[in-house]
Write a structure and sequence with these properties.
- The protein is mostly helical.
- Among the domains are: 48 residues; 59 residues, no CATH class.
- It is extended.
């Protein structure tokens, strides 16, 4: 065999025997004999080792009828989380993703991401209405960057995250920018109405 065997269109298939592998690789096949495997009596039902489970199928947790589940599965898992129930527009988007698309489809996961972004935007608005708005400047780290030579430290080195310095404030604050744009449009419309 040559060094180029993996690149041949139809390479010869020669499977080494157990004796050859045992001679070539120290310890090969040490777990083939069940007598040498300490886990076999514990894992084998034939050996009579009980798992301690008192059921064949776990009992279903209450509240499963309205829970979201993948369309590949016939029912909800026996136990599921209830800490963050779906609600509002974000919940409707997530329910649609589970009801309409398989987990193997990109649309399923993109809708879940959209639902997450809607949830974040909703919480930012409700927090602001409750008197606890996000501290945009402090949370993005812009103030800290200003005193540490942000441009020189990125352009004068091999760092690859300098593009993030330009994009991160936009990605993190698109909701605020959209809200600001909405306020500007509303104010302009009110001014036009007053003029006429």
């Amino acid at each position: 065999m040559s060094d180029h065997t993996p690149y041949i269109a139809d390479p010869p298939r020669r499977v080494p025997s157990a004796e050859e592998l045992r001679a070539r690789i120290p310890g090969w096949g040490s777990d083939l004999d069940p007598a040498d495997r300490p886990s076999v009596p514990k894992l084998s039902r034939a050996a009579g080792a009980a798992t301690g489970a008192h059921w064949d199928v776990p009992p279903q947790q209450d509240g499963a009828s309205g829970r979201e589940r993948s369309i590949e599965h016939a029912h909800v898992t026996p136990v599921f989380g209830t800490a963050q129930p779906l609600h509002g527009l974000a919940g409707a988007v997530r329910r649609y993703a589970y009801r309409r698309f398989s987990e193997g489809r990109l649309a399923h996961w993109m809708l879940l991401v959209v639902g997450d972004r809607i949830d974040v935007a909703t919480h930012r608005v409700t927090d602001a209405l409750h008197g606890r708005p996000d501290r945009v400047i402090r949370e993005t780290g812009v103030r800290v960057e200003a005193g540490t030579h942000p441009v020189a430290s990125r352009l004068g080195s091999s760092r690859r995250d300098w593009r993030h310095g330009l994009l991160d404030p936009l990605v993190a604050n698109w909701g605020w920018l959209a809200a600001l744009g909405g306020v500007v449009l509303l104010v302009r419309r009110l001014r036009r109405v007053r003029r006429h």
